[in-house]
């Protein structure tokens, strides 16, 4: 285990089991349809790649980079589109794949923006959800796990760009965050 980790909240094995369940749900819900999976870089990368392998549909990929946080753990309430989609989404079934819903600002704003582009449908799939931190009304359509109000890293999630490669979802030792 990484030396900076205080505890493991979800093991890689637990996550992979849940990812398979979500993939099966998506496969069922969109049977006969094509879907554009939009991964939000960089945090969703690990979840995205585990998920898409198990979705048995006509899939396309695209990616966005949005930023709502500085380098710390506090949300600014606004998002910046740093990299937009590389194609129009009019008439398409779009699923946004995100690492975590925290305050909800990022996905609320992103959903608003993408809705103006007239997709056929638009849903949100997030590995983690921290409902106790919500500042705006926003619900995910596919959620892996609800987590308590603790800053977590691993499986794609970072603290100051580190720890994304940890195979489990972890909480770091308090001294690392200060
Ligand atoms: P929101 O706009 O507050 O919902 O923030 C969503 C973004 O904040 C996520 O995509 C993450 O990049 C980041 N974030 C929120 N909570 C955590 C956490 O516990 N660990 C790592 N990143 C987090
Ligand atoms: Mg982040």
Please give a structural write-up.
There is one protein chain. This protein has one domain (13-148): Rossmann fold, CATH 3.40.50.2020. It contains four helices and nine strands, in the order E-H-E-H-E-E-E-H-E-E-E-E-H. The chain has helices at residues 12-29, 45-52, 105-115, 174-177; strands spanning 5-10, 34-41, 58-69, 75-83, 93-101, 121-129, 142-146, 152-153, 169-172. Strand 3 (58-69) and strand 4 (75-83) form a beta hairpin. It binds inosinic acid and magnesium ion (MG). Magnesium ion is lined by residues 43, 69, 158.
What keywords describe this structure?
178 residues, globular, 9 strands, 36% strand, Rossmann fold, alpha/beta, binds inosinic acid, binds magnesium ion, 3-stranded antiparallel β-sheet
Classify the beta-strand content into a percent band: 35-45%
CATH topology grouping:
Rossmann fold
Structural class: alpha/beta
The largest sheet is: 6 strands, mixed
What is the topological layout?
Layout: E1 5-10, H1 12-29, E2 34-41, H2 45-52, E3 58-69, E4 75-83, E5 93-101, H3 105-115, E6 121-129, E7 142-146, E8 152-153, E9 169-172, H4 174-177
Parallel strand pairs: 2-3, 2-5, 5-6, 6-7
Antiparallel strand pairs: 1-9, 3-4, 8-9
Helix pairs in contact: 1-2
Bound molecules: inosinic acid and magnesium ion.
Magnesium ion (MG) is lined by residues 43, 69, 158.
